From TrEMBL:
<dbReference type="InterPro" id="IPR036704">
    <property type="entry name" value="RraA/RraA-like_sf"/>
</dbReference>
<keyword id="KW-0378">Hydrolase</keyword>
<dbReference type="InterPro" id="IPR005493">
    <property type="entry name" value="RraA/RraA-like"/>
</dbReference>
<dbReference type="InterPro" id="IPR011234">
    <property type="entry name" value="Fumarylacetoacetase-like_C"/>
</dbReference>
<dbReference type="GO" id="GO:0016787">
    <property type="term" value="F:hydrolase activity"/>
</dbReference>
<protein>
    <submittedName>
        <fullName>Fumarylacetoacetate hydrolase family protein</fullName>
    </submittedName>
</protein>
<dbReference type="InterPro" id="IPR036663">
    <property type="entry name" value="Fumarylacetoacetase_C_sf"/>
</dbReference>
<feature type="region of interest" description="Disordered">
    <location>
        <begin position="249"/>
        <end position="282"/>
    </location>
</feature>
<feature type="domain" description="Fumarylacetoacetase-like C-terminal">
    <location>
        <begin position="22"/>
        <end position="222"/>
    </location>
</feature>
<dbReference type="Pfam" id="PF03737">
    <property type="entry name" value="RraA-like"/>
</dbReference>
<keyword id="KW-0479">Metal-binding</keyword>
<dbReference type="Pfam" id="PF01557">
    <property type="entry name" value="FAA_hydrolase"/>
</dbReference>
Length: 516
């Protein structure tokens, strides 16, 4: 009994006591968001058990049969005074101390945790914290810096000024949902540079104000565990190239072939160099500004600009909106169905299958895009999944298959494009196969992260790297077309005006000069 008590006391040695709650932020640094290719509009959270805490100098086990134990250096906030419904201006007054933390995660268990991170981040020793506390009242929170070393080499280096959501906002936001009590810990997210640690590796994290107070270095050594997971009790660890890429930070770091190479299995850009590609290989985040522009530009205008840039095969054909009056703008979250085969549906159609995983994980502002091979002879979603996507904040759903319970789906209110209504369930024609991969929908290729825009005319796919260029050109063309329409309404013939010849162009430019 004494040994158990001593071990427990050591875990919380850097804190005023055992915290009642440990709350962690999913994604909060701009550098990490840009690395992942998605930037949240609002913070989201998960809980970690206090039993996962560990002290500096402790070890962490990588379980037998797993490979992706990733470190995440973070700034940890320790609540000093209870906070309930406090505003951002007062929130920092409720933080007593700041220290370093390492939010370890086992990516082998991440997919089946569905964002809860209960198993992937809740293990014993998965939250080292300390070793010393910084007085929060004596520092500017934006000046805090977090650095992480892997075997003595710097891996992460960023400051709170680089966070999407300020530290005080996180405290205020959480306090509007529940009371933050004295001793509670908030893990505030990790910057770019998180990667995988192997048995024998030493990971160190330090939080400080440059030239000022420091938490000291939080030291954790990774060791190989011998215990395995029991398949009869729950799902087993599993990894794929997506989890490897996100755990290591990039395909290159994970030792995977570059995207687009024959070895990668993704031949979207195979045989094409960056120089002769009509689109950039860079994929910027769909910002609020860009989203606002896309909200006002008709799909027909975007289509014309994409054609000018050599992109003709960017239309999701054969789909019609349940809400023609609604505009659809978001980034693609892809789902692929294969033709039904009874044995494969038995193995892949039930349980927490690919279809359910996508609808349970779709993020705010994302569009679920479904490859159903144009087969409309069964539903590919119904009202329950539409409700789930709406509750998750999804921007919409596009499927080149059918929709079941079409009236109920329409009543949900989320923009949905489909090949039509059909009463049959999924298994009549389809097997839910995989997700977050390059798919074909309505005769065009869609990749995760592509920008999807729809209106009453249809749906187009915009490569993220040229989205700003395309939307700005489309806005300019819309303004020009409106001016031409006014001239036609005045009685001018379209010959020479649409498109404008030199004379009309000069008049238009003079008008532009007068406005300036």
């Amino acid at each position: 009994m004494d040994e158990i008590t001593d071990a427990a006391d050591r875990r919380f040695a850097a804190l005023p006591g055992r915290p009642g709650k440990v709350v962690a932020v999913h994604l909060s640094y701009a550098s990490r968001a840009d690395q992942r290719g998605r930037r949240p509009q609002h913070p989201s959270y998960f809980f970690k058990p206090s039993s996962s805490l560990a002290a500096s100098g402790d070890t962490i086990e990588r379980p037998a049969g797993t490979e992706l134990l990733a470190f995440e250096g973070e700034i940890a906030l320790v609540i000093g005074a209870s906070a309930r419904r406090v505003g951002p201006a007062d929130a920092w007054d409720h933080v007593a101390w700041v220290t370093a933390a390492n939010d370890f995660g086992l990516y082998d268990l991440r997919a089946n945790d569905k964002g809860s991170n209960v198993r992937s981040k809740g293990g014993d020793g998965y939250t080292p914290i300390g070793p010393s506390l910084i007085d929060a009242r004596a520092i500017d929170p934006d000046a805090l810096r977090v650095r992480t070393w892997l075997n003595g080499e710097i891996a992460q280096d960023d400051t709170a000024a680089g966070m999407i959501f300020p530290l005080a906002q996180l405290v205020a936001d959480l306090s509007q949902h529940f009371t933050l009590e004295t001793g509670d810990v908030i893990l505030t997210g990790t910057p770019a540079g998180s990667s995988v640690a192997q048995p024998g590796d030493v990971v160190e994290v330090e939080v400080d104000v440059p030239g000022g107070p420091s938490s000291g270095r939080l030291v954790t050594t990774v060791v190989q565990g011998s215990e395995t997971f029991d398949a009869e009790l729950g799902s087993l660890p599993a990894v794929d190239d997506l989890q490897r890429t996100e755990a290591w930070g990039s395909r290159q770091a994970a030792g995977l072939p570059a995207a687009g190479s024959p070895e990668s299995g993704d031949l979207t850009n195979a045989g094409r160099s960056a120089a002769d590609s009509p689109v950039s290989t860079r994929s910027p985040v769909l910002s609020d500004v860009l989203r606002a522009k896309l909200d006002v530009v008709p799909v027909a205008g975007l289509s014309a600009q994409l054609r000018k840039r050599g992109l003709n095969n960017v239309h999701i054909d054969g789909v019609r909106p349940l809400h023609p009056e609604a505009k659809l703008v978001g980034t693609a979250r892809t789902l692929r169905f294969v033709p039904n085969r009874e044995d494969l549906f038995a193995s892949h159609g039930g349980g927490f299958n690919a279809q359910k995983r996508v609808f349970d994980a779709v993020g705010e502002g994302e569009v679920v895009v479904i490859e159903a091979r144009g087969e409309a002879g069964s539903g590919t979603l119904g009202d329950i999944l539409a409700i789930r996507a709406h509750a998750r904040g999804a921007a919409g759903i596009v499927t080149d298959g059918g929709v079941r319970d079409a009236a109920a789906v329409a009543a949900v209110g989320i923009p949905v494009y489909s090949a039509g209504a059909h009463p049959a369930v999924l298994g009549r024609k389809h097997v839910p196969w995989d997700a977050d991969v390059t798919i074909a929908c309505g005769g065009t290729t869609v990749q995760p992260g592509d920008i999807i825009v729809g209106d009453a005319d249809g749906v187009v796919v915009i490569p993220p790297g040229i989205a700003e260029e395309v939307v700005d050109a489309a806005l300019a063309q819309e303004d020009e077309d409106a001016w031409i329409a006014e001239r036609v309404a005045e009685g001018h013939p379209v010959d020479g005006l649409f498109p404008m010849d030199a004379e009309w162009r000069a008049k238009y430019n003079d008008r532009e000069g007068d406005r300036a």
